[in-house]
Design brief:
148 residues, Rossmann fold, globular, alpha/beta, 4-stranded parallel beta sheet, 43% helix, 7 helices
């Protein structure tokens, strides 16, 4: 099977044109609205040509495995922080980000176990999770130090 990074090196221009479609743009804008309140440290995983990252708050970092996509993201927004990374081995400590976003990415990840773990999390109802956080932690404090 062709690795997704090699595929996207080859089809970067057509993919960029696809992501300019108004429906795609609306989905990216909607994704940005779903961020937890106060999220500042944000990684947009599989940012492609940057269309989703530019919808996020200033300082959000776009990450992709394909240099051709990062090059297009740089042209879209020259000041956008960008990283070349592998979604399976993120270069960040657990709990160091406020949010990770990804639009049209899960089907590209070769580690099926990782995809299944992510799908299990997705099955939890978002409003239930938000209500639980708002009830027990309304300031959205980082609780890692308190819990360990």
């Amino acid at each position: 099977m062709l690795r997704s990074s090699a595929l996207f090196q080859a089809v970067a221009l057509p993919y960029e044109l696809l992501t300019r479609h108004p429906v795609w743009q609306r989905h990216c804008a909607r994704m940005a609205l779903e961020l937890p309140r106060g999220a500042r440290l944000i990684l947009d995983l599989g940012c492609g040509p940057g269309n989703s990252t530019v919808q996020l708050p200033a300082g959000a970092v776009g990450g992709d495995h394909a240099f051709s996509m990062l090059h297009r993201a740089r042209r879209l927004e020259p000041r956008m922080p960008l990283l070349c990374l592998d979604a399976i081995a993120l270069p960040v400590r657990s709990g160091s980000l406020d949010a990770v976003t990804f639009h049209s990415v899960l089907y590209l990840i070769s580690d099926q176990a990782a995809v299944l773990r992510e799908k299990q999390i997705e099955e939890w109802r978002r409003d239930w999770k938000l209500n639980l956080i708002e009830r027990d932690n309304p300031q959205w404090r980082d609780l890692y130090e308190e819990l360990t």
